[in-house]
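Sample pair:
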Amino acid sequence: MCRVLLVFLMAAGVTLPPSSSHACEGVVSSLLSQPEKPAAGAVKQISIDALAALLQQRTDVSVLDANPDSVRSSLGTVPGAVLLTSASRYQLTELPAEKDRTLVFYCFNEQCTASHAAAKRASAAGYSHVLVLSAGIQGWKAAGRPTRRTS
């Protein structure tokens, strides 16, 4: 039974420990204890509450707004957010110089992918702590968090 499971796992592309080809004992528990690797190109997400706590606890966090001006004028922005000129074509000079600074990108809501595109661009540019607030400004506002109006 264990050999069948090993063949199935290898066919599915699961990387097995080197010892698994010779013995089955402990392989399944070893595989279950391995942390999941994020999909290639995936960005880490942060919740509204986690972002609010992060902003209260740390000063090395930059929040970046990937929304168009029309969304900013109707819903506002997260206070202190950097307003990017474009989600996918912003200038890298719009980002902080410190590549180890935590960057949190957001756009309109969970269906909007502008923040993901902006975050992937930052990651590709060498920023090591990049997150996305998937709930966006709509979720931030619906959660009762403060916003800043733009003109």
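The mean pLDDT is 81.
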